[in-house]
Amino acid sequence: MELYKNGKTKDIYKQADGNFLLRFKDTVTGHAPGSTDPGGNKVVGSQEGVGSGALKMTAYYFELFKKNKIATHYVSSDISKNEMVVRPASLFGKGLEFVVRYKAAGSFIRRFGLYSKDGDELPGVFEITLKDDEHDDPPVTPEILFVLKLLTPAQYKKVYKDTIKICGLIRKDLKNRGLELIDIKIEFGLINGKIALIDEISAGSMRVYENGKKLDYLALSSKF
């Protein structure tokens, strides 16, 4: 296999059949050493079991989405090897992140702390941010997306609808486990010109509470 990309949480290899193999790492992200955050752009440490936990959650949710007829890039997974095979997908620009927030936390407070405090209820607020580590993943409005030709109006309507549905399914599943989804980020790409969910769905891409306390990567992964 050919190493395609050495990422923060995954290494990506291109296979002979055109699909990609994602090898999950035991790295955790955040904004500063010792402080993990699913919205963080830096690797702030490593913890044994994070990679396999992330893959276990991701495989579980992609199988759930398959049952609900949601298009994804998922092909198969091997938990014992921390590996997942996916179909190739093109990004919107250099990548967009689609976020849903049910309570104020993290970067929402950093940006809007003048008007909101940690833990405030939010009605499933939807936002899109650019994947741009250098500029701390700036949020972007629909108008700017259209002007920059990153999304068309029709694509925006589609990703909005799919994001709300996908995150709603995850929130319901977590609630059935006695857990509360605070916020979550997902990614989409194009496969044969059609929008599909890509990347991973794991503890590193969401903030989840149990009995009012935030679960760390391994604590959340252990629920699956």
CATH class type of the largest domain: Alpha Beta
Averaging pLDDT over every residue, what do you get? 93
In CATH, what is the homologous superfamily of the largest domain?
A: ATP-grasp fold, B domain
Task: Return residue spans where pLDDT drops below 50 for at least 5 consecutive residues.
Answer: none
Which fold name is given in CATH as the topology of the largest domain?
Answer: D-amino Acid Aminotransferase, Chain A, domain 1
| Total helical elements | 5
> How many angstroms separate the termini?
30 Å
Along the chain, the helix and strand elements come as EEEEEEHEEEHEEHHEEEEH
Which class best fits the helix and strand makeup?
Answer: alpha+beta
Tell the overall outline.
globular
Helix content: 25-40%
